[in-house]
Amino acid sequence: MYTGKARPPYSAMRSTLMRLVLASTAVLLVLTLAVSPVAAYPSYGWHEPADGSVDSPHFKVLYKLTGDEAASAAYAKEVSGSLEAAYAKFVTSYGYLKPHDPKIHVYLYWDAPSVGGKTPSLWTTQEGEIDINAKMSPQNNLSVVTAHELFHVLQRGYYEFEWAPKWVIEGTAVTASYLANRATSVSAASDPLASYWKDQFGTFISGRLDPLFGQQYTSGSFWAYLSQRYGGEQFLHRFFTQGHDLSWTEAAAAAARAGGAPSSTTFDRLYLEFALAAYAGKVDVLSFVSNLEYGLTDATLVWNGWAEALSSGAVTLTLSRHGNVVERAVPFKVARYGVMGIRLHLDSEAPVTLEVTDSTSSLLPYVLITGADGKVVGAPLAGGKVTLSGLPRGTNGWLVLTRVVRTGTGRFTAKASPAATGASPVNLVPFDQLVAGLPAAPAAASGGSR
Description:
Structural class: alpha+beta
Distance between the termini: 26 Å
Number of strands: 21
Shape: elongated
């Protein structure tokens, strides 16, 4: 899986670039406001003579008064003001490099109401333009959209755009637009983005979190958490500054270390921390989304005093190609840089041993318990097992199964069994202490059942 920014030789890049320029190829970064993070790409905007324009220190907003792309001078002025406000945040306050173009051209166009805007970039420029959809709905999403699209322009001062992975570029733009707006209008910043926070979870059945490197906009909650923990608005700035010379994963770890993470912190540790924080309710942006929306799972391990094991999701009925009814159950599996949470419910006060069996020991299993006071405590499953004792009936929690190692299938079975006589219960520690004790470079649990 591609994790860095390996670049081809200059001669190959130049040859490829020339072919694409001659073909007038364009690349689009699109912000959609619907629940689905991906929409059909709209047209590449219009470049006919404009009927009017609004000039500001850093932008020239062009619009048409007639035809399919008609907009108003008043809306163009509103777009201009919103872009300047985002520019002041990103460039003046946060210190991002100024765009090469002294004035960015912005085109107002019409598209589906769910599309906010796009940043097409011809391979001849690397800077490009900004297109804003005058038909977006609701219009109060404008501050989020303009910040998102401007951030794409600023990103290009730090990397070769054509080689950038979407989990980095779109995810950080989602987070940047949130950070730029949260101080003045939390509602405007959070409402159109809440679907992205939510959609990172539940993409698969059983409460699994979509593998990070396969995401686009929905990786925003990962970047938002790292910003929350390691430097606020300055985290992303440090990330892109570091990213000019490092791989994306190395740059994220370097930015976190500069923001207070332990000096030996790796990207794997950051992902493990994020995964645990998500199920412990410690990711701020997920507070905009109900637990019922992002946390529900059909995998619940109930401790009633007798052994129980879970190895697959709910049984479903499907038709084979011959028309026969077939029962299917998808095996539990965690992809690399993915996580799955199994909800725990203790309906017995008898001591219980929780066990995760993984044929390749590729998972990092942790238990999180929510106390009656709402505080979260937890512990790793050393050797794939942990014994709980003394918890009151009705206690809830999670088995959080994260995977960062390169090898293995990620398939597993989770079990709850009566604790053996004399088994020592685990020492559950407060969540902050648990995170502080995470290994700098976590490896898969060893010694588990195989």
